Amino acid sequence: MNEQQLFDFFEMNHIEYKLFKHQPLFTVEDKPILIDSDVDIIPGMQSKNLFLKEAKNNSFFLVSVSEEKRVDLGRLSKVLGCGRFSFGKPAELMEYLKLTPGSVTPFGLMFDKHNNVTFVLDEDFLTAEFVIFHPLRNDMNVTLNPQTFLTCMEKLAHPVRVICIPTK
């Protein structure tokens, strides 16, 4: 998907961010080697984003947590009041968020015009100085302060459910 749509959205809505380019990353274990940057490490809380499906109701969730957390999916489903989770299929990820595996990001919610995907954000992000997400592709990251990120989600007209994500 064209990240320019996201950058245009940022500009149109006066969303302040900083862009960092790096080699493509496919898992949270991959560490970015920054390109054309004046820093070695991207400042902020790096996200891990899970695209989940709850089969009983055929509903979808995008869950964002800090990269070091190991999410307890069983406990998370209970907290959210739904059935067991499985990971969404790549075709479903493309259908709802126009994303491919490895580039999952809350910014894909800009394509979820009917709010088919419930967005769940770990409360830890609200205490970070900056939050880090891919801008629709996995060879870049953007940083924003948490309040700016929440404003961005509000302008996308996509509700954010902030909870303490249960861990293993």
Radius of gyration: 15 Å
Instruction: Using the coordinates shown, work out and report the CATH topology.
Output: YbaK protein
Mean pLDDT equals 89
CATH C-level class: Alpha Beta
User: What is the total tally of β strands?
Assistant: 9
Q: What's the structural blueprint in terms of helices and strands?
A:
Blueprint: H1 3-12, E1 18-22, E2 34-35, E3 45-54, E4 59-66, H2 73-79, E5 85-87, H3 90-97, E6 117-122, E7 131-133, E8 140-144, H4 146-155, E9 160-163
Parallel strand pairs: 3-7, 4-6, 6-9
Antiparallel strand pairs: 1-2, 1-8, 3-4, 3-5, 7-8
Quick gist of this model?
The chain is α/β, with parallel strands linked by helices.
Structural description of this entry:
With 168 residues, this protein is an alpha/beta fold. The protein has a single domain, classed as YbaK protein. Helix content is 21%, strand content 27%. The chain is built from four helices and nine strands; from the N terminus they run αββββαβαβββαβ. Strands 1, 2, 3, 4, 5, 6, 7, 8 and 9 form a nine-stranded mixed β-sheet that branches. A hairpin with a 6-residue loop joins strand 7 (131-133) and strand 8 (140-144). The longest helix is centred in the first third of the chain and has 10 residues, at 3-12. The protein is globular.
Give me some keywords for this one.
single chain, 168 residues, alpha/beta, YbaK protein, nine-stranded mixed sheet, 21% helix
